[in-house]
Amino acid sequence: AQSVTQLDSQVPVFEEAPVELRCNYSSSVSVYLFWYVQYPNQGLQLLLKYLSGSTLVKGINGFEAEFNKSQTSFHLRKPSVHISDTAEYFCAVSSGGSYIPTFGRGTSLIVHP
Amino acid sequence: NAGVTQTPKFRILKIGQSMTLQCAQDMNHNYMYWYRQDPGMGLKLIYYSVGAGITDKGEVPNGYNVSRSTTEDFPLRLELAAPSQTSVYFCASRGQTNTGELFFGEGSRLTVL
User: Fold this and answer.
1) What's the confidence (pLDDT) of residue B40?
2) Which residue, among B43, B47, B60, would best test binding to A if mutated, counting the most A CBs under 10 Å from its CB?
3) B48 CA to chain A: closest CA distance, Å?
4) Using a CB-CB distance cutoff of 8 angstroms, which residues of chain B are in contact with residue A44?
5) Which pLDDT does position A54 carry in this prediction?
6) Is A3-112 a domain of CATH 2.60.40.10?
């Protein structure tokens, strides 16, 4: 079985500050990890994904995430956030032969001016 | 590219009414999914399909039905609407491999009064 835990339901931060959104997963087999972003009143869109290889993955809009197998984590980071980054962020995992990804509950990133 | 198209975007139903949420994708994807999103609860899988003619239940299928007569279309039917079905519904699709991202529609906001 696979599961995802997003440790923070809401993360407030000031503009131009760094941010980290935390994601931990559990799975007994190899995993593929994803971060999606949902802007207000829109569907989800892919930010980045980890399939294999380098543990540091770069995505769109200056975001990056690091896969840590020993800590079963896939935290999302951005060194300097903008007001436009205000959105809901979802971590997701697909493991082994599963074609049903499991999503976390989401983290609301709120960027203040 | 249209991607995943959902209709309607908004709908208000009375208790006991029925309706169908439409979903179409033009990417020739085999896998299609229906999720509901409730505040703070993330995405919950209602039904999914691995190809035309094949559907299966997800985590929260009660009160819903689906069909998949073509690769492109995956409608979600609500029978006897209840207030508990007030939610935002997302349709998504994915290509053949489980390393691929999900492509989401923009959502259908349903209110049952």
Assistant:
1) 81
2) B43
3) 8
4) 43, 90, 92, 102, 104
5) 87
6) yes
CA atoms within 13 A on the CB side of B63: 15
Contact assignment for A43 to B105 by CB distance below 8 Å? yes
Q: Where are the domains of chain B?
A: 4-112
Identify the pLDDT of residue B1: 67
Closest-CA residue to A59 (of A39, A37, A38, A26):
A37
CA distance A86 to A11: 10
Correct CATH for B4-112 of 3.40.1280.10, 3.40.630.30, 2.60.40.10, 3.30.70.100: 2.60.40.10
pLDDT at B100: 74
Mean pLDDT of the region B85-112: 90
How long, in residues, is chain A? Answer: 113
User: Tens digit of pLDDT for each residue in A42-88?
Assistant: 899 999 999 888 889 999 999 999 999 999 999 999 999 999 999 99
- Average per-residue pLDDT in chain A? 92
Please answer yes or no on whether B98 and A94 come within 8 Å at the CB atom: yes
